[in-house]
Design brief:
381 residues; 11 helices; 2 domains; four-stranded antiparallel β-sheet; alpha/beta; TIM Barrel; Immunoglobulin-like
């Protein structure tokens, strides 16, 4: 009987190629770190330093999504800003994170009116923030641009029931996902439109973005589930081009204070994912091809405050400022690196930028006024 069972198993494996060929696992992976509102302090900033250090050892670039409180904490100290610049220079991405009014730990920033804010926050449980104060989202957006420095803020991760209301309109990439089941960590880049959402007399969106999904990990059980799914290329992971995970700084801090490295979920995942197409969110979505032809172009054209032509452009590009009271112009390449900065004259309505010295590719023009920041995309041929 034992011989018959063994023969059956061997026969089954011999027949597998006839039913299908083994697929490759995802070509790319990313790791998002959420820097949550209640943990913007020295101990957790030092834990974030350690996370980045471990990631550097494994050549895993992180996408660090900063809540408003973390942005304030970092901008308050030039030494911390220098640390962020070093991380950016080493390939890590600085991105945005937001807890809206539907989140238990609301971060205090929203475009929702007071009645909606009070209704949803006071309905939260006793362990939640139940915060009814509010700061307009544009205050957060301006701080994000300052934190980004010579880079360009491209990625937005938030917890919102209606994302368009609080979304930064000029950010083309978005992370999403959850902690319901590990399959959420496997996805292909996709285009999503948020809004239009009408609140009172104001319409937010529609904002079209390019998205990618992740799965929350904060324990070894979740890491083991992700590893099992990744290795099961015949049955699951081969259908997806990207695997992504997210964790909180406070999750890592707790694990780092409790377990040795070999039993720390963060270290174990780093050991596993090293060398498996590790990139930042912005790099994966920019290279996907799905996004540049659809989401990015749409998302960066929602603000009709200035025009770019011709687009695509070859020798030069004209920026028509129209009625925009512009103060500064920035030019970023597709990696989010600043390649040009210009101070604009008061009342200037048009200018021309020569392109002969620039490599071919996608570029972003960012116009700053005393009240707003607006970005648009063009292609240099």
């Amino acid at each position: 009987m034992k011989f018959s069972h063994t023969l059956f198993v061997l026969t089954l494996y011999a027949l597998l190629p006839a039913f299908g060929t083994a697929q490759s696992p995802p070509a790319n992976s990313f790791f998002v770190v959420h820097c949550d509102p209640d943990y913007a302090d020295f101990p957790h900033f030092n834990k974030l330093r350690k996370m980045v250090h471990i990631a550097d050892q494994h050549q895993v670039p992180l996408t660090l999504e900063m809540s408003p409180q973390w942005v304030d904490f970092i901008l308050a100290d030039p030494a911390r800003i220098d640390t962020i610049r070093t991380w950016q220079a080493n390939g890590h991405e600085i991105a945005a994170h937001h807890h809206g009014i539907f989140h238990c730990f609301y971060d205090g920033y929203t475009n929702y009116p007071p009645d909606s804010l009070i209704l949803h926050q006071l309905s939260m449980g006793a362990g939640c923030a139940q915060d009814t104060s509010s700061i307009p989202m544009n205050v957060f957006w301006e701080k994000l641009d300052e934190l980004a420095g010579d880079s360009l803020m491209l990625t937005w991760g938030s917890s919102d029931e209606h994302p368009a209301v609080d979304m930064y309109p000029n950010i083309p990439y978005r992370t999403d996902g959850g902690r319901d089941y590990p399959e959420q960590g496997f996805s292909n880049p996709y285009v999503a439109t948020h809004g239009p959402t009408v609140i009172g007399s104001t319409t937010y969106g529609p904002y079209t973005v390019c998205s990618i999904d992740y799965y929350f990990i904060d324990e070894m059980e979740e890491v083991n589930q992700m590893i099992a799914l990744y290795n099961d290329s015949l049955g699951f992971s081969g259908d997806y081009s990207v695997v992504g995970v997210v964790t909180h700084v406070f999750d890592f801090a707790e694990a780092d204070n409790t377990f040795p490295p070999e039993n720390n979920y963060f270290n174990v995942w780093m050991n596993f994912i090293e060398g498996k197409g590790c990139k930042t969110v912005r790099k994966i979505l920019r290279e996907s091809g799905v996004c540049e032809s659809t989401a990015t172009q749409t998302a960066l054209s929602t603000e009709k405050t200035f025009d770019i032509y011709p687009n695509p452009a070859r020798d030069f590009v004209v920026i028509s400022l129209q009625e925009l009271q512009a103060q500064e112009l920035y030019l970023f390449n597709a990696n989010g690196q600043k390649v040009l900065q210009l101070d604009l004259q008061e009342g200037q309505q048009e200018l021309s930028l020569p392109l002969q010295h620039l490599p071919k590719g996608i570029y972003f023009i960012q116009i700053r006024t005393d009240k707003s920041v607006v970005s648009k995309r063009f292609l240099a041929q």
